[in-house]
């Protein structure tokens, strides 16, 4: 059995596209295009609208007052500590005082003493005169006057003279044998020579007196003490001041110990 032909067949569609139907279809298509255009334009306008900016909220800064200072706590008083000593415990004995130790410094060679020179003191004289007066007046009254004057002069004492330092005027110079008797043994054992300078007063008997060591080189070998021992055999003419012996003058005596 054969089916009836479909009503929407090609000839039917060709017949439907008549000039009148074509104009209506064109108008419908144009309307659809206009509607699409309007929709697109509306969508673009929505997308192109500038975003609305919200106004910032006003902010006001307020300065807070500083917090109040808290009162400082007062320090608690410390109770005084009482030092109690038990009756059975004896009190500590005080420490013994420290006795300072004295250190003796090496004695430097003493300088020759300066002989004091005593000059005549000042001499003064003066006179004074005076005279009084008397008179009569009424009952229980009187007058008087007086004058006086005085003069004086003095002679200043001269400045002390400096002691003289003189070389020795030998009468008997010590021989090497005499010096060898007082030569320090330690210096001889080490072949150490030495030199000493003495300063002495010379008596009228030509013997030295009050000798002292002015210089000793090298130190530590007792050359100074040996020279003082040797000075007992020295004989030197005393220095003269005019026609008298100058007992205050110093004679400088060199002494050499040869141990080479």
What does this molecule look like?
The protein has helices at residues 10-16, 19-48, 176-182, 185-189, 223-230, and strands spanning 165-166, 170-172, 194-202, 208-217, 235-236, 240-241, 244-245, 250-257. It is of the alpha+beta class and 260 residues long. The chain has a domain at 165-257: 2-Layer Sandwich (TolA/TonB C-terminal domain). It has a four-stranded mixed sheet with strand order 1-8-3-4, with helices on one face. A two-stranded antiparallel sheet has the order 2-5. A two-stranded antiparallel sheet has the order 6-7. Strand 6 and strand 7 (244-245) form a beta hairpin. It starts with 9 loop residues before the first helix and ends with a strand.
Keywords:
260 residues, alpha+beta, TolA/TonB C-terminal domain, 4-stranded mixed sheet, two-stranded antiparallel ribbon, 5 helices, 22% helix
């Amino acid at each position: 059995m054969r089916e009836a032909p479909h009503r929407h067949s090609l000839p039917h569609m060709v017949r439907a596209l008549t000039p009148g139907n074509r104009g209506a279809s064109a108008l419908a298509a144009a309307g659809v295009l206009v509607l699409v255009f309007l929709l697109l334009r509306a969508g673009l306008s929505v997308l192109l609208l500038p975003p609305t900016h919200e106004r910032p909220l006003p902010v006001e800064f307020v300065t807070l007052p500083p917090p109040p200072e808290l009162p400082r706590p007062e320090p608690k008083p410390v109770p005084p500590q009482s030092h109690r000593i038990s009756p059975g415990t004896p009190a500590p004995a005080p420490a013994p005082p420290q006795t300072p130790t004295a250190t003796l410094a090496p004695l430097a060679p003493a300088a020759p003493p300066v002989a004091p020179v005593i000059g005549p003191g000042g001499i003064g004289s003066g006179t004074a005169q005076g005279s009084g007066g008397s008179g009569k007046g009424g009952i229980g009254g009187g007058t008087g006057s007086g004058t006086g004057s005085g003069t004086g002069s003095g002679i200043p004492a001269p400045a002390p003279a400096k002691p003289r330092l003189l070389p020795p005027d030998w009468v008997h110079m010590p021989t090497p044998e005499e010096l060898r008797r007082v030569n320090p043994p330690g210096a001889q054992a080490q072949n150490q020579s030495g030199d000493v300078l003495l300063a002495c007063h010379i008596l009228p008997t030509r013997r030295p007196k009050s000798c002292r060591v002015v210089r000793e080189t090298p130190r530590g070998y007792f050359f100074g003490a040996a020279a003082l021992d040797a000075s007992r055999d020295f004989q030197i003419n005393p220095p003269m001041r005019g026609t008298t012996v100058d007992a205050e003058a110093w004679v400088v005596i060199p002494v050499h110990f040869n141990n080479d």
